[in-house]
Amino acid sequence: MSYAKVCCVGLVGVAGHLVEVEVDIAPGLPGVTLTGLPDTALNEARDRVRAAIVNSGEEWPNRRLTVNLLPATLPKRGSAFDLAIAAGILACAGELPSVGLDGVAILGELGLDGTVRPIRGILPMVAAAARAGLTRAVVPLHNADEATVVPGMDVRAVDTLQRLIGFVRGCGTLLPPPGSPAPPAPPGPDLADVAGQAVGRRAIEVAAAGGHHLALIGPPGAGKTMLAERLPSVLPELDDEAALEVTAVHSIAGTLPPGGRLIRRPPFQAPHHTASLASLVGGGSGLARPGALSLAHRGVLFLDEAPEFAARVLDSLRQPLESGRVTLNRTGGTTEYPTRVQLVIAANPCPCAKPAGDSACQCTPVARRRYLGRLSGPLLDRLDVRVRLHPMRAADLVGTDAPRETSATVAARVARARAAAGARWSAQGWRTNAEVPGAALRRPPWQLPRPDVDHLQRALDSGSLTARGFDRTLRLAWTIADLDGLDRPGAGEVAEASQLRAGEHG
Predict the structure, then answer these.
(1) Regarding beta strands 385-388 and 214-217, do their DSSP bridges make them parallel or antiparallel, or are they unpaired?
(2) Which of 326, 334, 324, 273 minimizes the C-alpha distance to 435?
(3) Entry's SMART domains (predicted)?
């Protein structure tokens, strides 16, 4: 036969698309033509595939080969198509029965000796094949455990091209997924390690319960970083849908932990303040790669020493924080990644940053305003909780043996609060209070009585509170009510929300 077709999958961002690898053999000068918008790595596949076939003991068809990747308008990138192209060429040359390749997604990179090497993004690829109606997938051995998390897919593994050839010919078998046990998760930092700072601990609990963004302002040694690093320890584990989203992003980035299992713990990303725009939001040549913002999806993005970040880098977060997605346009096409994160920023109140706090500050008022002024007003307006931490006292560190609340204790309260919010908003498809549109909270049946929000309305009219700030304060009040076991917030919860919002709590 002179035509064969094999299924593969291409990725654009985290979205997988079924790709049909067509191979045609025609008379003419020997050569390989690759069509269908391949990138440089894919264009080089012709040499990798030729060497892999020959070194696997098979004969290379010394005729004119045309390999077409459908749909032709979809950009194709990477080396994941190597194994499918090799199988298509052998089937087209009559060396393999094409019936053995029908309805199977074939994924993998080939070495020159015919070994099948692991690839990035196997989880979203196999998930896309399942959505397209395929029920079987052949993947590299080292990716097999990761691929098995997709329900309804019969996953088999290969370590060499020769093993795939023997299986299709009916004289060999594929490998089952190794089933490597997931390594035990190392114990994370515990909230019990934080001495004192009742205001900061309350802020962490409220932020976790409602999914709110958080700003921690205070002198060095006050515990800003310790508190931020312990926020993931009080967040609930990811459900199946969220875990698949998070694992898919990390699969594309090549940062999955050993074992390739679903990521169940909310991720934590803390880029250095010298991070570039591309490393934070995503970027790169061709099709953009995910940045720290997307790697923190459904988890925490922590920016320590936030005023030291470049202003354009910080302001690039504004739109993704609102929409939960970032769209990156590059020469290779448009890529979209999820960015539903909790942003936590930490900052010193001034450049001199005396550990004793404001009482020892040597900065002029202008210098203090200029320093925190590096955080733009529109960005700060998107931070629901803003607290000022005071310098640590000796009594907090060594003056008491009273036990401190552990992360497990706080996490139990957070879980109850999230369950209450989920029950209230599940019909509308919202997970947390932070996701609820402000318009929904300003209309019956969720509208609060006027006396309870009267001071918010006066602040809005005077210009000291923005419309966005008004809505975010309402969301905070609902979160506080959920933590306190109330059906709806009252004047006290709105007042505490206002204090957390204005940085006056405690």
Answers:
(1) parallel
(2) 324
(3) AAA (SM00382)
Query: In 144-252, at which residue ranges do the beta strands (DSSP E only) sit?
Result: 154-158, 214-217
Residue 453 scores a pLDDT above 90: yes
* Helix/strand/coil (H/E/C) assignment for every residue in 322-366: HHCEEEEEECCEEEEEECCCEEEEEECCCCCCCCCHHHHCCCCHH
State the Cα–Cα distance between residues 9 and 14, nearest whole angstrom.
Answer: 12
Q: What is the pLDDT of residue 1?
A: 58
Please provide the average confidence, as pLDDT, over all residues in the chain.
Answer: 91
State the residue range of the domain holding 54.
3-168
CA angle 497, 500, 501 (to 5 degrees): 85
First-to-last C-alpha distance (Å) of the chain: 79
Q: Is 178 exposed, middle or buried (0-12, 13-18, 19+ CB in 10 A)?
A: middle
Number of domains in the chain: 3
CATH at 93:
3.30.230.10
**Cβ neighbour number for residue 272 with a 10 Å cutoff:** 12
- φ/ψ region of 90 (left if φ > 0, alpha if ψ in -120 to 50, else beta) reads alpha
Please say if the pLDDT value at position 162 is more than 70. yes
Question: Nearest-5° angle of CA 65, CA 66, CA 71?
Answer: 155
Q: What are phi and psi of 69, to 5 degrees?
A: -110, 115
The residue type of 175 is L
Q: Are 251 and 125 in contact (CB under 8 A)?
A: no
The beta strands (E) that lie in 36-90 are given as: 64-70
Distance CA 435, CA 211 (A): 8
Q: Helices marked H in 158-236 — which ranges?
A: 161-168, 198-210, 224-229
- Residue 424 located in a structural domain: yes
pLDDT bin (cut points 50, 70, 90) of residue 18 is very high
